[in-house]
Amino acid sequence: MLKNKTFGSALIIAGTTIGAGMLAMPLTSAGMGFGYTILLLVGLWTLLVYSGLLFVEVYQTADQLNDGVATLAEKYFGVPGRILATFSLLVLLYALSAAYITGGGSLLSGLPTALGMEVLPLKTSIIIFTVVLGSFVVIGTKGVDGITRLLFIGKLLAFAFVLFMMLPKVATDNLMALPLDYAFVISAAPIFFTSFGFHVIMASINSYLDGNVAQFRKAILIGTAIPLIAYLVWQLATHGVLSQSEFVRILQAEPTLNGLVNAVREITGSNIMGEVVRIFSALALITSFLGVMLGVFEGLGDLFKRYHLPHNRLSLTLAAFLPPLVFALFYPKGFITALSYAGLLCAFYCLILPIGLAWRTRQKNPQLAYRVMGGNIALVFALMIGIVIMVIPFLIQTGYLPTVAS
């Protein structure tokens, strides 16, 4: 099992998925209530598993195992398709990685306080987080696979301890709370959307599994089922233990991952509990950061190769890490903002793009061995939802929808 590539791929998908999106959930769902949060989660999981399987369908027609999504987009939509795919992928991944670096730096800066030491400067924490974790990405997929397996075990142990401590404190009244504003459910959709944004590593997974459709499909189903279960239980714990009014008050004062740690510590009255949440949050960020940066390397490598630019490890490392690092250093409070706009781009790259690719693939290759169920009707329905999710951030910006977190 430990040497099984399908299992390893599923863990990479799960590790990429369980990251900043999960940690942002309590920050954005405090005013939504438990019931509507669960409905939103299950609905988006169904939608994004469907679009992930569309990539499996399209990759059956790839000319080479290591073809990136942009190469497939150029194959079916020409140069404009490549430009759109490359732009959306890189901006999405830069936004996600910036959010992860910012969140990781925030958690690392507060870590010394648990040992009675002074807080580490945020910029120093951000640089340490990026350099140390980025080295594993530079090694490649095998390096990420190895460390992900190790960190995933630690993440599960920390998560189990958090649940062991929090679930007995769940109060039914807290779970019955209704949304403070039903429009919050709509406003939160783009951020929750990123919670299942594993699609950025589809090219790497396809290459790693040698284009095996059955293994690819199984990796997606297993790799997304793990996060869904974790998200559902996480929501049960946070919404059940923390009363809506208290939780909203604390997070409004400090809408960061440190704020989440402090909220758990204050309401549970346990310093140990707060630090375990910090450890779990850090491990979740790290595994997600590794997967996303793997996607950045794949996207940049595909772009540089196409236009005959130097695509050695040094050039890819500089191009991959500098933009999100600069954002994190000079806009350290941009965690939620980065995730919100990442949700917009995620809707395009993870939903609208695979729908378009699947549509053209079915037209040109009617005899594919594997096709996702639902036919073209499902494609149209998913497309409509994707467009709505892309519009939501603009409706929030113009004041038509409420902001879920500041």
Automatic annotation (TrEMBL):
<feature type="transmembrane region" description="Helical">
    <location>
        <begin position="279"/>
        <end position="301"/>
    </location>
</feature>
<feature type="transmembrane region" description="Helical">
    <location>
        <begin position="152"/>
        <end position="170"/>
    </location>
</feature>
<keyword id="KW-0472">Membrane</keyword>
<keyword id="KW-0997">Cell inner membrane</keyword>
<protein>
    <recommendedName>
        <fullName>Aromatic amino acid permease</fullName>
    </recommendedName>
</protein>
<comment type="function">
    <text>Involved in transporting aromatic amino acids across the cytoplasmic membrane.</text>
</comment>
<feature type="transmembrane region" description="Helical">
    <location>
        <begin position="182"/>
        <end position="207"/>
    </location>
</feature>
<feature type="transmembrane region" description="Helical">
    <location>
        <begin position="372"/>
        <end position="396"/>
    </location>
</feature>
<keyword id="KW-0813">Transport</keyword>
<keyword id="KW-1003">Cell membrane</keyword>
<keyword id="KW-0812">Transmembrane</keyword>
<feature type="transmembrane region" description="Helical">
    <location>
        <begin position="122"/>
        <end position="140"/>
    </location>
</feature>
<feature type="transmembrane region" description="Helical">
    <location>
        <begin position="33"/>
        <end position="56"/>
    </location>
</feature>
<feature type="transmembrane region" description="Helical">
    <location>
        <begin position="219"/>
        <end position="237"/>
    </location>
</feature>
<dbReference type="InterPro" id="IPR013061">
    <property type="entry name" value="Trp/try_permease_CS"/>
</dbReference>
<keyword id="KW-1133">Transmembrane helix</keyword>
<dbReference type="GO" id="GO:0003333">
    <property type="term" value="P:amino acid transmembrane transport"/>
</dbReference>
<dbReference type="GO" id="GO:0015173">
    <property type="term" value="F:aromatic amino acid transmembrane transporter activity"/>
</dbReference>
<feature type="transmembrane region" description="Helical">
    <location>
        <begin position="313"/>
        <end position="332"/>
    </location>
</feature>
<dbReference type="GO" id="GO:0005886">
    <property type="term" value="C:plasma membrane"/>
</dbReference>
<comment type="similarity">
    <text>Belongs to the amino acid/polyamine transporter 2 family. Mtr/TnaB/TyrP permease subfamily.</text>
</comment>
<feature type="transmembrane region" description="Helical">
    <location>
        <begin position="338"/>
        <end position="360"/>
    </location>
</feature>
<dbReference type="InterPro" id="IPR018227">
    <property type="entry name" value="Amino_acid_transport_2"/>
</dbReference>
<dbReference type="InterPro" id="IPR013059">
    <property type="entry name" value="Trp_tyr_transpt"/>
</dbReference>
<feature type="transmembrane region" description="Helical">
    <location>
        <begin position="83"/>
        <end position="102"/>
    </location>
</feature>
<keyword id="KW-0029">Amino-acid transport</keyword>
<dbReference type="Pfam" id="PF03222">
    <property type="entry name" value="Trp_Tyr_perm"/>
</dbReference>
<feature type="transmembrane region" description="Helical">
    <location>
        <begin position="7"/>
        <end position="27"/>
    </location>
</feature>
